[in-house]
Structures are given as structure tokens and as C-alpha cells.
Amino acid sequence: MQIKSAEFLISNTDLDKCPKPDKPEYAFIGRSNVGKSSLINMLVSRHGLAKTSQTPGKTQLVNHFIINKEWYLVDLPGYGFAQVGKATRAGFARMIDAYLTTRANLLCTFVLIDGRIAPQKIDLDFITRLGEQGIPFVLVFTKTEKLKSGGLQNIQDRYKAALTEMGWDEFPQMFLTSATSRAGQKELLDFIEPLNKAFEIPQMGEKRPWQQ
Ligand code: GDP
Q1: Partner of 24 for a Cys bridge, out of 9, 76, 115, 199, CB 3.0 to 4.6 A?
Q2: What's the average model confidence in pLDDT over 164-175?
Q3: Separation of 33 CA from ligand 1 center, angstroms?
């Protein structure tokens, strides 16, 4: 897929104000500082589209972008920052949950994980919640230019081992990316393209197959 246009549409905390669910949508989420803004900018080749290095906890909103006038990219608030209070954190978690479980056109959630560090409980907990709720997702390892080829295999194996220990017998698809080297851009866009083609506008009140 070639990126011809990428525009910011709306930031909001009110899910009713999200654009009409008439185009395929993909959400990006991960711990604060995981490299989410950098990855989004790299993916759509627009420097500064998603603001990088914001104060942790600042991205408090559901940010909608429209790409190629054809699909929505959603930048969700980072989870797990210690800098905001417990109540705010719980509020974010509720909003993210409500968004992920009700957004009818959401085709896949990209869970970003820092490829340089061992599996973290907070990421595994989030993945578990997605699995329990049947929300389609993939894992996107970031900052992987810092890893040697053995390390690239290792991080995937460690996640598989952690998921196996938690009782998973199937693993989510995994992508190795780097905003610095631009690794993974083609793979992610190649993943999105056929999903876009197969998208059908959900009817009013219709649930996606995984929400039945
Ligand atoms: P966000 O908080 O998840 O949106 O993360 P940012 O995109 O703002 O990046 C957080 C920090 O990680 C910044 O210092 C970036 O320069 C750095 N970073 C982001 N992507 C990469 C990458 O691919 N490789 C490396 N080495 N650092 C990165």
C-alpha cells in the first residue's frame, strides 16, 4: 500500500464523537514511551503527525487519523504510566475498554511492545484482557534496530513462552519494527491492505464476528 494522504481528524474522550464507523479502523496502543508516536509517523511516512515524546499521560484521548481517505488509524492513550493518579488511570482504562469492545469497525488492535525488554506483566495483562474479550490484535515490537538477529528471535520466543505459561495455545501474529530503521513498515501496511479490501460497513447495531 502506498500512503497518499494522512490527516488528523479528531481527538475526543466521548466515544459518540468518533467518526461514523463506515471505514476500516486500526488502533495503536502500548505503554507510554514505547515508541507509538514514532511508529505511527513512520508507518504513514508523516513526520510529526502523531506527536512524539509527549509528557507521559498527556495523550489522554482517542485520536482519529484518516489515511488515504480510506481507513482510520487510532492513536489510543498509553497505558501504565505512573505519573497520573490512580483514578485517572482507571478512567483511561475504562475508556479504552469501552472503545475496544464497542467500536464496530475496529478490525485489529496493534499492541506495541518495547522489543528491548523482557515481557512485562502490564503488557501481558493487557493482552490477556484482549484475548478474554475476543478482540483481534497483533503484537508489534518496537525499537528492534537495537537488537541483533538472535535478539529478534529471542523476544518473540519469550512472549510465546509467557503466553504458553498463561494457557494460550495459539499466538498472535508478531511484527518486528523500528521507527529508526523503518523496519516493519511494509509488513504492517501489507497486513492492513487485505483487511481494508474485505471490509464491509457494519449495519446499525450489528456486531463484528468476534463480538457475538
Ligand atoms: P510514545 O510515548 O509511545 O508515543 O513514544 P515516542 O514515539 O514519543 O518515543 C519514545 C522514545 O523512544 C523517544 O525518545 C524516541 O526517540 C524513542 N524511539 C521511538 N522509536 C524508536 C525506535 O525505533 N528506535 C529507538 N532506538 N528509539 C525509538
Answers
A1: 199
A2: 95
A3: 6
Kindly give the distance from the C-alpha atom of residue 35 to the centroid of ligand 1, in angstroms, as a whole number: 4
Integer Cα distance of 71 and 111 in angstroms: 18
Our measurement of the distance from residue 169's CA atom to the centroid of its chain's CA atoms, rounded to an integer in Å, reads 22
| 81 C-alpha to ligand 1 centroid (Å) | 15
- What is the pLDDT at residue 55? 55
pLDDT band (50, 70, 90) for residue 41: very high
User: pTM here?
Assistant: 0.93
Nearest 5°: the CA angle 99, 100, 102 is 65
For ligand 1, is residue 143 a contact (CB within 6 Å)?
A: yes
Whether ligand 1 lies within 6 angstroms of the CB of 34 is answered as: yes
Which helix H or strand E contains 98, and what residues bound it? helix 86-102
Q: Whose CA is nearest to atom 9 of ligand 1?
A: 35
Domains in the chain, CATH or no CATH each: 6-191 (3.40.50.300)
Q: How far is the centre of ligand 1, averaged over its atoms, from the C-alpha of 208 (Å)? A: 33
Q: To 5 degrees, how large is the angle CA 35–CA 41–CA 44? A: 135
Q: Which three cell numbers stand for residue 206?
A: 450489528
Mean of the pLDDT values across residues 117-142? 95
